[in-house]
């Protein structure tokens, strides 16, 4: 059976979600987040092979880079949505695979998207995307999170180059009103397509307690004493619980490559 065609937005605007394959992390350090942001910049401020400026491939209104997924509020312009997303993900996967000696797919094969056909839902998504780090428990405040587009809104100066197209949003809703709306947290039952906060980070104490209570480990390094298959099974379940690869590498002494395989 073939894939169901994507629903088309009357406004050309979509909420796009990109996720790591098998829910794996796609960002390990600040350099990774910064490189992905650079790819967003390149599709907005597009240049041809000779370096000559070309029309933007798309318009971006909001983004949020989480540990294992990305949210975009994006409008089709010069290229179809699928082509734009492919530009971004192929460039990032090439960088990531080279840096971490990763083999195979990085992103889930088919990105998820939903149409945005009215201003009310557009504003709901603008709020939801910027609130994602707070809802996931990895930031205490929307303004403190470094890897969302809210920092562009907070520091916006007309005429300044930004990834997001901010001026049209502020023409519709003045910044003071927009800020108040964005900082008013949405109820958890909001009907917004998401990943159930899979990007939530667990603290070291939480991971140690999980390993102790679930598998009887006195300390994380005891995992080295287990058989390969049992070790990989525990690592996989601990990643699903919310541990990052870097965190497990530090706590257990097991290599980055082995933990990624789990």
Question: What can you see in these coordinates?
Answer:
There is one protein chain. By secondary structure, this protein is of the alpha+beta class. The chain has helices at 30-44, 81-100, 119-135, 150-154, 167-172, 175-182, 204-215, 228-241, 245-252, 256-261; strands at 13-19, 58-65, 69-76, 112-116. The protein has a 4-stranded antiparallel beta sheet, with helices on both faces. The radius of gyration is 20 Å and the shape is globular. Residues 195-199 have low confidence and may be disordered.
Q: Gap between N and C termini, in Å?
A: 31 Å
β-strand number: 4
Number of helices: 10
- Provide the structure class: alpha+beta
Q: Quick one: overall form?
A: globular
The stretches of 5 or more residues where confidence is low (pLDDT under 50) are 195-199
Features:
single chain; 262 residues; alpha+beta; four-stranded antiparallel β-sheet; 10 helices; globular
Would you kindly provide a brief summary of this structure?
The protein contains ten helices and four strands; from the N terminus they run E-H-E-E-H-E-H-H-H-H-H-H-H-H. A four-stranded antiparallel sheet has the order 2-3-1-4, with helices on both faces.
């Amino acid at each position: 059976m073939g894939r169901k065609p994507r629903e088309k937005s009357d406004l050309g605007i979509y909420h796009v979600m990109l996720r790591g394959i098998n829910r794996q992390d796609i960002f390990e350090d600040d350099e990774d987040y910064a490189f992905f942001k650079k790819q967003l910049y390149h599709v907005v401020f597009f240049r041809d092979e000779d370096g000559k400026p070309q029309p933007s491939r798309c318009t971006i209104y909001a983004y949020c880079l989480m540990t294992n997924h990305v949210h975009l509020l994006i409008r089709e312009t010069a290229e179809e949505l699928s082509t734009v997303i492919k530009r971004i993900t192929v460039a990032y996967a090439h960088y990531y695979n080279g840096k971490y000696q990763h083999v195979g797919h990085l992103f889930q094969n088919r990105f998820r998207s939903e149409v945005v056909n009215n201003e009310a839902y557009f504003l709901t998504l603008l709020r939801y995307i910027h609130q994602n780090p707070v809802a996931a428990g990895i930031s205490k405040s929307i303004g403190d999170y470094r890897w969302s587009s809210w920092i562009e809104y907070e520091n916006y100066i007309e005429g300044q180059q930004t990834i997001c197209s901010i001026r049209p949003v502020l023409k519709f809703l003045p910044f003071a009103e927009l800020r108040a709306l964005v900082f008013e947290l949405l109820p958890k039952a909001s009907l917004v397509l998401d990943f159930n906060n899979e990007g939530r980070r667990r603290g070291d104490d939480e991971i140690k307690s999980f390993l102790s209570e679930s598998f009887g480990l006195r300390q994380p390094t005891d995992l080295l004493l287990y058989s390969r298959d049992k070790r990989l099974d525990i690592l996989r379940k601990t990643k699903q619980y919310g541990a990052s690869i870097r965190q497990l590498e530090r706590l257990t002494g097991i290599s980055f490559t082995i933990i990624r395989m789990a």
